[in-house]
Design goal:
The structure is a homodimer of 402-residue chains. Chain A has twelve helices and 20 strands. In chain A, helix 1 packs across helix 4, helix 6 runs parallel beside helix 8 and helix 11 crosses helix 12.
């Protein structure tokens, strides 16, 4: 008998038929004698409808507190419907809003962070042998106002409950059946992984694998919550995410593409101390994450600095550098959005120096030029022209995984 | 400078345009320096959509707790949208759910009664000069579960806040511009009343005038909250409801029709002591309200008892009497749903004995047969064939009010 936390996304409960499908998955585990706590997102169409309504009132986007009030109604609807379906199938169930389930957050409406989960109410309901359905994505701040956790927040809600209750496993149901060595829609030879470490998963999530939300993996790592990514449509084991996993014969765990990237070049910079500091300090003030940085060797008395930022921050980054014009001597700032980042991830690579050369060889064989390179202990990323991204993923993937 | 509580129903906030219309009404009073607390119902279509979703999951109707969880999302949406509109127009505002506004109720999900309103949060927001938007129809029970107040609950929410905060007036906005001496769609000569007493309003509400919810008028009377019924579409004074009002030259305040009525006859009852008790005790156990009762003078050793019940309870009433067959000796029970009740209401009539005869004369002149009669200090009701109901209302109305 285990305590299992399950999380279902908006598309898994999009209509009555899917709600009953989810209800049956839950009941199956409950009937085996397990305690089951379920976190649900808002139905896909509900969230869209609510955003439409808000835009009708204020197209410029209004108070984030009121937007949280509005959007959190979405999970309220889905938890009630899922509870009704489980009840209809004859099993004891209760739905709980974020605050009823004990979620305390900070006051950053729209992107709130969970401070604490007081799981007393959930424990009491479980003690009565109720299946407990919890609204994901939402909590309450110290002023008793409803907050939402931002993108992927329901994953984080599920992990937070699992951590608070020391659950045996936290199962994240998605529309794919696990974590793959590459995007299976793009790479036909992609293989499903039985298991992966938190760190590998974090690199893959950051790199655009889009299976699990980053914050949820970070939290799972911090509290040592075993995650399982699995399909809500097929009844079979998914991919386990945990601290250490046995390395299989392949050196790398996956290949990921990230298209949300742009390069910025500051050309003809006067080569004096502190220029790099000025640039990156300014970007940090605007909360822009800089990833790969490349600094040219100085010619005459100038140099160039090129770096990558998320594509959505590109224009802001250029503006903020231009605002330094008075204190920074340079020729021009250019923005290039036609790039993509391709990365290989695997905890095994740090003890295998051949990984980088094998990756570069695969790209060379495919005729793809590398513009920038970045490495960490468990990943190697290259920046290439966006048009070759899918081709690069296939070439690199097939070089390592067969 | 006054404290004003305003209540807007679902049709008043049905779309973005109407939400802004309501926002402007609120702002107008706020700009005069008043403190304004607003109670809103769910948007008409939202409630319908939510009920459709619930029926899709469980057509038999499921747990009332979960239905309350579902439906209360409706007001959550409307308060957020109204707050966004007021904010967009440049005024400080905050929306509060029932529990945030301090509504404690009993645990009768779907028909909960308000036990207490702790208005501390509302007072704090008003002290900051915020316009406060409160979700009507909902509260929280002692288990921290969301409850709903049932039909017309938002009126009751508004009066409860007004009572708790000793507001100067509680304005109930509707799609009519006040309380009329009869239904203006049926009686062209109907006149709008400037004012009416709580008791008169209660009789009119009970009798199907459908302007104000009964519980809200009872609560207003109990806590002496001055009500105003007015239109959300036209900017003009409505009808004031309070303890005593000056009687105008007409003796009566209004004429109302109630079509939700059926008569039940228990025919050929053995005339022994206790038979009436048995019948009405049984009906009380089933929570069926009996209105007019007529007992025939006994012939041989039997008598007939005829009484009226709400049409919706008719079949249940017949069944529950039939369940007494063993202990009650009677020939048959009949149900007649083709009746209607027409009533005149007016605090002035108790000192004017001519009212009843004037009413009966008007009906006689119109060729309408009276089947049963019931009187109280401030009303006279007659039961007639349903097909003559509108004709009867016009005839009686024109006899008294011109």
């Amino acid at each position: 008998m285990s305590l299992i936390v399950k999380k279902f996304g908006g598309s898994s409960v999009a209509n009555a038929e899917r709600v009953f499908n989810v209800a049956k998955i839950i009941i199956e585990d409950y009937k085996k004698g397990n305690d089951v706590v379920v976190v649900v997102s808002a139905q896909g169409d509900t969230t869209d409808d609510l955003i439409d309504k808000a835009n009708e009132i204020n197209p410029d986007g209004g108070s984030k507190r009121e937007l949280d009030m509005l959007l959190s109604a979405g999970e309220q609807i889905s938890i009630a419907l899922l509870a009704m379906a489980i009840e209809k199938l004859g099993f004891p169930v209760i739905s709980l809003l974020g605050w009823q389930a004990g979620f305390s957050t900070d006051s950053n409406h729209g992107i709130a962070r969970i401070k604490n989960v007081n799981s007393e109410r959930i424990r009491n309901e479980i003690a009565k042998r109720n299946i407990v359905i919890v609204a994901g994505f939402q909590g309450l701040n110290k002023y008793d106002d409803i907050t939402t956790l931002g993108r992927g927040g329901s994953d984080t809600s599920a992990v937070a409950i699992a951590a608070s209750m020391k659950a045996d496993v936290c199962q994240i149901y998605t529309d794919v059946d696990g974590v793959y060595t590459a995007d299976p829609r793009k790479v036909p030879t992609a293989k499903k992984l039985d298991s992966i470490t938190y760190d590998e998963m974090l690199e893959l999530a950051t790199l655009g694998a889009q299976v699990l939300n980053n914050r949820s993996v970070e939290m799972a790592k911090k509290y040592n919550v075993e995650l399982e990514v699995l399909s809500s449509l097929e009844n079979k084991p998914g991919t386990i995410v945990k601290e250490t996993v046995k390395m299989e014969k392949t050196l790398i765990r996956g290949v990921a593409k990230d298209s949300n990237v742009a390069t910025i070049s500051v050309v003809g910079l006067q080569d004096t101390p502190g220029v790099a500091f000025k640039i990156f300090n300014k970007l940090a003030q605007h909360k822009i994450n800089v990833d790969i940085i490349l600094q040219s060797v100085g010619r005459d008395s100038t140099k160039d600095i090129t770096f990558t930022v998320p594509k959505s921050d590109g224009k802001t980054a250029v503006q903020s550098i231009n605002s330094l014009k008075d204190s920074l001597n340079y020729k021009e700032v250019t923005l290039d959005e036609s790039v993509a980042k391709v990365s290989v991830v695997g905890a095994g690579m740090e003890s295998h120096p051949g990984v980088a050369s094998k990756m570069f060889e695969a790209l060379y064989d495919a005729g793809i030029n590398i513009r920038m390179i970045s490495t960490s202990e468990i990943k190697i990323s290259v920046l290439i022209d966006a048009e070759y991204a899918d081709k690069a993923v296939r070439a690199v993937h097939d070089a390592f995984i067969s």
